[in-house]
User: Fold this.
Amino acid sequence: MSIAADMLRHLDETGLTVGRRIVDIVLTQGYCGVVIDTGAAGWALNYAPPADDLARHETYWLSRTVHDPLLRRALFDTPAPPEIACLRTALLAALSEPVLAAPEHYGLRSLPDLPDHCLDGARDAAVVGFGGLMWRLLGRASLRSLSILDLGLPLRRTEMDNVAAAMRLARPDVTVHLSDGHGWRAIFERCDTLSVTGSTMCNDTLDAMLATAGAGQTVIVQGQSAALHPRALFERGVAAVLTTRKPPQLVALARSDRSGAALQPWFEGGNARVCLLRAEPVVIDARSARHRSGITTASTQSDRAPASCDGA
Assistant:
């Protein structure tokens, strides 16, 4: 079962889908929002090709909710093209809002930020999505190598090269490597710590990445698109989910500016952070990562590049 389908199952089991229906969908260049009848809105990065008729796409999807109130039949087949994967992630986020509001009611712990112990002992780390935890990892005295993977590298080469150069100046003892995501499995194999952007849910690559992660690796899912019921991620070995809660005014902002520019400040540091963890902390020996064996990969997924920045 896919991560998205597992998340929906957990939401079903907790009663959070009972009687719920989609009442609004808002699409911009770069962002996707879904509003349910409780007023909760979920957001995700939008990787669908740019379109001039976003309102028509909204109308089409809303029309399908007449007979399928949560678009279960339309959104939860895998693999999914970008438009469906983004809508699916935003819907799951809207349904998950009660979990982020009161994590303790759902057997979870929450903190305002990622606890330091999650990065203890990090030596060889990979960050999927430019931004995220890359600077925080660079500050760990134990770190020896940092790989930053982002599918936007070809378009943002100068910016990312400048940041990597600054990192090398700050930590000349750390090898900093930039990648557009090609060969990410080999990069993951040599790492003990993985920080994966939640926007991999939006290009349907997170399943393969978590299937590739092995015993002994510390895996953190972070980003704006990770505001989701985390149990399916914890079941796949994720140690923590670092994300944000979104204010209700984002729907009006998105409607006022289809370019997505009005939303950008909120999705680049303007939202309140929350870190979700299991009820009991999980201690992971990162040093054992290099000695693991029997890694399982998802044979149905290609070696696609990781998602772009979705920093929390």
